[in-house]
């Protein structure tokens, strides 16, 4: 190897190593930076991650939430309601949802663009089994339970338009002095 090529190769190696030394702490810091998504355990095997929350100009005093719920197989959540409009779509697994009171609406295949037919759920203690792509929606007068109904974890994406300042979930028959899942403001 000629002296010129050796000098260029050595210089190139020094530049690469220097660049690596400069960028390595930044890359490590990016990997160590938390995502900011804090899972809330709602019940054993049931978690909620608030992915976003924004105020609504169209619905004053309301907050629009996007949340991810996960149910491990066989896990179940206690009877509860939500202080506003809730829309849930199954993205993985099988979801069991049981009406206790009120009226809920199901659209099978909503994620694939279906807009109907709409199944109205009105009879107390009715369980509906929702599969990937199915959607259920309802208002704040609905009390229900839910469970992971399959052999694998169930993932639900929810959009909730809720009364500002209220918790995401209001357990039935429990003191609301300590909310189960109040997202940080």
Structure report:
- This protein is an alpha+beta fold and 185 residues long.
- It has two domains: 1-33; 39-171, Jelly Rolls, CATH 2.60.120.
- Helices cover 16% and strands 44% of the residues.
- The chain has one helix and 13 strands, in the order H-E-E-E-E-E-E-E-E-E-E-E-E-E.
- It has one helix spanning 3-32, and strands at residues 39-43, 46-55, 62-71, 76-81, 84-92, 95-101, 104-107, 118-121, 127-130, 135-138, 143-148, 154-163, 170-171.
- The strands form two sheets. Strands 1-2-3-12-5-10-7-8 form an eight-stranded antiparallel beta sheet, with no helix packed on it. A five-stranded antiparallel beta sheet has the order 9-6-11-4-13, with no helix packed on it.
- A hairpin with a 2-residue loop joins strand 1 (39-43) and strand 2 (46-55).
- The longest helix is centred in the first third of the chain and has 30 residues, at 3-32.
- 25% of the residues are buried.
